[in-house]
């Protein structure tokens, strides 16, 4: 090989190395960019939210504009009620769909449930609000906590189903085979062996569905509607945190803006906490 | 199949299971049917096609309903957000799957999950009070002033630099849909067999060349599926967009000015719609949104299954 040829080869190699390093830097930069807004939102929620949180935030209802102080008790309680009821409504359907997809793969309906479940999983949340409005609000003649729960329930079913399927598929085959070998019918194997084995994962999936729904405002705009006072009546409008946050954020009052940041921090903490717990439960 | 039906308890259990699980199927059909029925009043007045391409939305005086400003707004906002988020999302996926040590990859995966889980209203809150003012002061006003002096013909396309408008919505949405592309792209990259990489390394390829020649082409379908899912999310995203987009009934022809999307117009007007026709028109917008979301999600699922089949085949 002549000197010149060797030189060209080395230059080409160096260019390839340079390109490699350049792409690595670009990948790093893109990663930072991808997570930048999350960091900023986290920082601001913490910064602005902490100053809004005090005992009053959790123990008092909101006050009219102009009156300082007050809290969001009615929204916190409302979120728990609307979300809790939604979970009760969604749980049997979601669990059944998950079990069908994981344990009865050969059933002709299983692939249909999976296909439509996945598709509904990606549906815009506001459409569940429209559906609950048509199915519940219109026939009952008014906004209600119940209609909000129906909207969130529809939203939760595919999430619970997906999580259940995923967890059940992790249960070792041998556990089912052992049960069947002992002469247990299939339903007993599922109920007494498979589900208890998967319990931690199931709880996790349900918790994530709960957290996801707890942050939704769009489906509640015209179902649970919101209510400035603490209410326990399922057939009347009820307040929830995300909805109240939205209304306070677009209001012109500083005091309400402060409470909105407080609500943002509480929602953020709820999400972080539940996903951290979920990780812990799966690791075990 | 046989084992399912041998025992009475099994038969009962399977029956209950199937009945409950059919709720998922029912929900999808119910949504399609009810939204179509709810919107039929407006659709029959304007015509299926006329409602889609009509540009006048006037619920008060003329009572005419054309959804095109919102359809176009949705398309512009979601496609732009997808475009802006795609490369950072792909970079995050590559970093988590290929470059980062295990502990860092786990942190990044957790943060990506978190990005997807943070409620839309929290993004909107941040958008209203932090992002929009910043964009107004550092992006919109300088550009506007520059255009006023150097290129006045540009001004009508820029619009009112209030901070709330198309551009702000696109940017915040881009940040919000990153995790959907990133998660599926990461999974697809991780599914590519080790042997592919080893073969390329053995030929003397650099790390980037391995990625470009041996990994990314095989992960293409998964990456594409992620992009479809991100698109579906972007089209349906409601609260954050409603809070920063400025909500205008006009066709979205200015970059800084207000616009509206299909979900944002539903969110904004639904509780104010007192007349049946107005209500029906909003539900009809919801029906269009349903159809488009359904198709995009279906497509994402199809592409994803192809990726999975591919990964099994190579293995």
From TrEMBL, chain B:
Residues 71-300 form the ABC transmembrane type-1 domain. Keywords: Cell membrane, Membrane, Phosphate transport, Transmembrane, Transmembrane helix, Transport. It is found in: Cell membrane. The keyword Cell membrane applies. One of its GO terms (cellular component) is plasma membrane. PANTHER family: PHOSPHATE TRANSPORT SYSTEM PERMEASE PROTEIN PST (PTHR30425), PHOSPHATE TRANSPORT SYSTEM PERMEASE PROTEIN PSTC (PTHR30425:SF1). This is Phosphate transport system permease protein.
């Amino acid at each position: 090989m002549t000197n010149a040829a060797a030189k060209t080869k080395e230059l080409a190699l160096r260019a390839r190395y340079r390109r490699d390093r350049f792409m690595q830097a670009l990948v790093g930069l893109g990663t930072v960019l991808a997570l930048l807004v999350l960091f900023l939102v986290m920082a601001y929620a913490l910064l602005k939210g902490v100053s809004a949180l005090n005992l009053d935030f959790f123990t008092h209802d909101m006050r009219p504009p102009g009156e300082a102080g007050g809290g969001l008790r009615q929204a916190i309680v409302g979120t728990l009620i609307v979300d809790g009821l939604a979970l009760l409504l969604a749980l049997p359907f979601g669990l059944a769909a998950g079990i069908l997809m994981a344990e009865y793969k050969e059933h002709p309906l299983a692939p249909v449930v999976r296909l439509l479940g996945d598709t509904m999983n990606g549906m815009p949340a506001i459409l569940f609000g429209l559906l609950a409005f048509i199915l519940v609000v219109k026939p009952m003649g008014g906004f209600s906590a119940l209609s909000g729960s129906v909207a969130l329930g529809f939203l939760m079913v595919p999430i619970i189903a997906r999580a259940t399927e995923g967890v059940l598929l992790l249960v070792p085959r041998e556990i089912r085979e052992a049960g069947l070998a002992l002469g247990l019918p299939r339903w007993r194997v599922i109920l007494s062996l498979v589900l208890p084995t998967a319990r931690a994962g199931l709880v996790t999936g349900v918790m994530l569905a709960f957290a996801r729904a707890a942050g939704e405002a769009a489906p509640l705009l015209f179902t649970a509607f919101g209510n400035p006072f603490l209410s326990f009546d399922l057939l009347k409008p009820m307040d929830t945190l995300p909805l109240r946050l939205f209304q306070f954020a677009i209001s012109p009052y500083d005091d309400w803006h402060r409470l909105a940041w407080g609500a943002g921090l509480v929602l953020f903490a709820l999400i972080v906490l539940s996903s951290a717990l979920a990780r812990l439960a799966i690791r075990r | 199949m046989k084992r399912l039906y041998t025992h009475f308890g099994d038969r009962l259990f399977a029956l209950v299971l199937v009945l409950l699980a059919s709720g998922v199927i029912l929900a999808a059909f119910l949504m399609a049917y009810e939204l179509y029925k709810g919107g039929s009043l407006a659709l029959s007045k304007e015509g299926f096609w006329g409602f889609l391409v009509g540009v006048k939305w006037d619920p008060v005086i003329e009572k005419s309903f054309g959804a095109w400003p919102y359809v176009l707004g949705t398309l512009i906002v979601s496609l732009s957000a997808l475009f802006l988020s795609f490369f950072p999302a792909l970079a995050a996926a590559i970093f988590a799957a290929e470059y980062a040590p295990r502990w860092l990859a786990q942190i990044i995966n957790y943060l990506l999950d978190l990005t997807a889980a943070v409620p839309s209203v929290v993004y909107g809150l941040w958008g209203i009070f932090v992002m929009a003012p910043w964009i107004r002061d550092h992006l919109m006003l300088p550009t506007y002033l520059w255009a006023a002096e150097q290129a006045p013909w540009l001004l009508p396309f820029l619009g009112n630099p209030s901070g709330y408008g198309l551009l702000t919505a696109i940017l915040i949405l881009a940040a919000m849909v990153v995790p959907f592309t990133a998660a599926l792209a990461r999974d697809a990259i991780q599914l590519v067999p080790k042997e592919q990489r080893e073969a390329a390394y053995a030929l003397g390829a650099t790390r980037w060349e391995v990625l470009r020649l041996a990994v990314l082409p095989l992960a293409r379908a998964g990456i594409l599926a992620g992009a479809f899912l991100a698109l579906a999310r972007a089209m349906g995203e409601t609260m954050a967009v409603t809070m920063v987009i400025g909500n205008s009934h006009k066709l979205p022809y200015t970059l800084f000015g207000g616009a509206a999307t299909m979900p944002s117009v539903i969110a904004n007007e639904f509780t104010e719609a007192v007349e049946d026709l107005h209500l029906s028109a909003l539900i009809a917008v919801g029906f269009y949104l349903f159809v488009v979301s359904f198709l995009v999600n279906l497509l994402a699922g199809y592409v994803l299954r192809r990726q999975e089949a591919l990964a099994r085949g190579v293995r």
